[in-house]
Amino acid sequence: ANDPANCGSCGNACAGGLVCASGACALQCLGGATKCGSKCVDVANDPANCGSCGNACPGGQVCASGACALVCYGGTTKCGSKCVDLNYDPTNCGSCGKACGGGGAYCSSGSCVGGACVPSGGRAGFNTLAVDTASGCWNGNPCSRDNYAWDGNGQNFAAFGQQITCSGSTACVANVGISTYEGSTTVCQGAWNVYCDGQNVGTINTLGKTCTGLATTNGCKVSFSPRQCSQIKIEAASDGDGTAGCCGSPQPDSMIMSVSAW
Question: Fewer CB atoms < 10 Å away: N or C end of the chain?
Fold first, then answer.
């Protein structure tokens, strides 16, 4: 009844690891192990029998204290039921659940970059003339106004590549417009490259146009896909008209009176 070498009958030896109980070879699990089929397992840590016999943990999970758990390696972080890289995952950017949304946005170094935003529709407050390299005879702060006015707030550009930068706000914008000086005998028009935080978003070319009135409505503007901006730079570009003489300056013969972003 109990002899593992003669279990139930003479010469019937139980296999290694089995005991003889009531004349039958049987598996005996010791040390807190549990019998699962033909072997003894630790259900607290066995991923094939986690917590109970036959309860297998999904791929990539381990058994800890009788429960399947996700363990993340290589700098990844557990977000729900998967391991993610918070630096580059667009649905968990910087932290679990922080999604970058659509419109081409992506996750870079834990921050959402790019993608569409929604402008307010009103003029953004880029009213501070943060940078001014213009060398013409007339200098003021056209960033602070939307409306054309002859009162010393214009910027005369005396060389290509000269620029002004308007700051003082961070806003979602899709348009940048300007007004330019027009006198009875002088039209100070030209072309300007426009930048949002260093990214070129287009060119405003006012040659042959009347650009007085409001910068937001006079049609002298560049439009682009909505984007967040903290600085608007306007740089004198080659305009191709070959004329000079605005305020006594050589090319480019151009003068900006007001600047608006919206």
Answer: N
